[in-house]
Amino acid sequence: MISALATSPAAMPLAAARRKDSPEKTPAETFQPQAPDDKLKWFTRGNKVTALYDARVTPKNKEDEIFRQVKLGIDAARSSIQLEMFGFGQMDIAKALVKAQNERDVKVQVVLDPVNEDLDWEQEKQECADYLIENGVDVKWYPVKKGGEGENKFDQINHVKMLILDGDRAIIGGMNWGSHSPMNHDVDVMVEGPAVDRMEALFGKDYLKSGGKKQDLIPIEKTPEHPEGESYVSLCTTSDDPKDRSIKAALHRAIRDAEKSIQVELFVLSDWSITKALCEAAERDVKVQVLLNPFEIEGKKLNEIAAEKLEKAGVEVKWYPTDERTGRKLHAKLGIFDGEEVILGSANWSGAGMTYNREANVDVIDPKVARAFGTMFKDDWKVGLAEPVYPPAREKSGVKGRIA
Prior knowledge:
The two termini are 29 Å apart. This protein is an alpha/beta fold and 404 residues long. The longest helix is centred in the last third of the chain and has 17 residues, at 367-383. It has a 15-stranded mixed β-sheet that branches. A two-stranded antiparallel sheet has the order 1-9. It has helices at 14-17, 66-76, 91-104, 123-134, 195-209, 247-257, 272-283, 302-312, 351-356, 367-383, 400-403; strands at residues 25-26, 44-53, 80-85, 107-112, 138-141, 161-165, 169-173, 187-192, 220-221, 231-237, 245-246, 261-266, 287-292, 316-319, 333-337, 341-345, 360-365. It has two domains: 35-230, Endonuclease Chain A (Endonuclease, Chain A, 2-Layer Sandwich); 246-403, 2-Layer Sandwich (Endonuclease, Chain A). The protein has eleven helices and 17 strands. The protein is globular and about 55 Å long. Helix 8 links the parallel strand 13 (287-292) and strand 14.
């Protein structure tokens, strides 16, 4: 297991270090993160990372509630807001973005997954996008690959959920911004420090791919270490670019190197190589606990298939108690390793989530962050069920194999 390393916080506050006239600017599409050492070559140090949760874990007036931080961040942005999002249906957030641009002269850029016109619940994203565009916000639609025969039967999705504020803060994780999303059990993190530069580079790459112009990209100003930065952070994606770190590779490394414990909360678990790796961890006496969402797709109960394999190998498996009345479900994609490391983000632990869809995860090495999510996991584990209870099927869910 990679141990969390001590860092030397920067003496200069971020606001003072990131001036608009800073000479250290790097084109977004060519930025390369600097490795602190060979052992942690994918990581940047000196980041402050805050665990964020849905309102069912923490009250909406608490600082660690996801949408409270989203709205506070947008309202406090001084120069730029970059948003890449799969689900977006909250008009109050759309209005806050417009207000930031038109009243405070904040540059706002948005990349969205295309609207699936066959799905009634996706029309709210079109309405929010129309409002943004009508009010002058730069909105781009990510050019997803169309499905066909063979391995990639279904259309690709841009499944990223990432908000970048002023180039030095980001909120990233698994929470969509749909009207129903706040009801789901999900997790994000707020990252402050140099790891955000890599997220800006990812956004820049996707913005250009979506038809944005190079001259419109917000330059990346090198972010110094945060004065309170104790976290090593690595951005992971599903890119084919060897300069990008693979989500699947990061998960396999964390599972393989775990020595004491693995705690997992997942919406979908259908990537069989990861299921096998979890089984192998249990077989070498690592305590593996997996909390799954009851998930059914086209008549296949994929998580039950994974659960059967896990239990045979000695993995402890429980099921999240979904709420039929509200439609609440477990939507997180979270792994905690040896109480030191956390991997979370947009990617389901599925075939499409690991290789085909556009995804973004973060790998965080910091015992404090791991403890924060570990406390949440313990509470969730206490109420976990021995058997899955499936909510009624949602009309025109549109999930299909794009996620599984």
